[in-house]
What we know:
Layout: E1 11-20, H1 30-35, E2 39-46, E3 51-54, H2 60-64, H3 75-87, E4 93-97, H4 105-110, E5 114-119, H5 122-130, E6 135-137, H6 142-152, E7 157-161, H7 170-180, E8 186-192, H8 194-199, E9 212-213, H9 216-224, E10 228-236, E11 242-249, H10 258-266, H11 272-298, E12 303-306, H12 310-319, E13 329-330, E14 348-349, E15 361-364, H13 370-376, E16 383-386, E17 391-392
Parallel strand pairs: 4-5, 4-7, 5-6, 7-8, 12-13, 12-15, 13-14, 15-16
Antiparallel strand pairs: 1-2, 2-3, 3-9, 8-11, 10-11, 16-17
Amino acid sequence: MYCRICQSKNINPIFNLGKQPLANKYPKNENEKKNEKLYNMDVFFCSNCTSCQLKVDIPRQVFFEDYYYLSSVNKELKLHFEQLANEIKDKNFVLDIGSNDGILLSPLKKNKVKCIGIDPSENVGEIANSKGLKTIISFFNKEACNEVIKYGGKPDCIVASSIFTHLENLDEFIKDLKKILSTDGVFILEVEYLNSILKNLQFERFYFDRPNYFTLKSIKLLFEKHGLIIVNVKNLNTHGESLRIYIKKNNKNVKVNNSVYKILKEENIINENYINSKFSLFAIEIKKLKEKLQNFKNQNVNVIGYGAPARLATITNFGKIDNTLIRIIIDDSELKSNRFSPGMHIPIKKFDSKEIQNTSTIILFAYEYFYSIRDKMANNNFKYFKPIPFIEMVK
């Protein structure tokens, strides 16, 4: 196996998350549950560019032809993209790659910025189009690029938020990106950050939809191969701490912000021993979570979950946590309602006061949205817990 980023042979399996389902596929009936497939999840580490990768022999269209993640159901995420739209409101033409239900396109349109989205999920892309948010339903490829140029010329700003980890062919993506980006344009990449995953024991963020996990070093090496340079980087709170990376075509006038060098220096800690030590702690925390849930069950405490993001599947399948320990999962997305969690098949319900009757304890799988979830719940006496590490969320 070669590293997808730097083509190094110095890539080896470093830890295993067991048999895992496709994390964004939510079975809706007994037949789908019966036919659900599980795959062994080995995580590889490249010591040359310090990236982690999954070996996934599943066609990418399988993941996205029917998709259940809607960005706009999250109040905090909507605010995040409203702030980004305000930052780039002076741009002439913005392309959002992986635009989902139009969460960035909507505030851009309100700011009177010409914009277009590309998203491979037909059901989600149609939601955006139905709202008047121009969305090309396609993967980002040459054909989609031609359609973008016909619509508005070459964009002077291209955004890709939380999609780069999903890509199968990173080099082809960057080649197409470089061709379509205007000469002085900026590519804004928001990507889940491997260093934060390790530091915060967020190994549940590994799942098959995402075969790639990046450090800033690995991003730098990847884009420099194609004559593109990182000029600035910011830390974000989204998706368990991410990076917002500003990338431009390399020329004499490009200046690199000190933030880039600062983060590159911080990454020197990442090596096989460091990752293995952090994964061992994660495995211990999964065991603690299951023990706590079993204690709740023994005490007849009615436990439910809130939030059915993809990482729910990694936690529950690695820990063998089913509906005997967590009765139901509440999720705000109508697309997931009355389905089941991948693998462990915990029932997923839309928020309803009847569903939370006689409940006192809530496991927050979407813990970054704690405040909006807490405000939504009528009963302020609930106890809220973050699953990994298992701690009570302070009101």
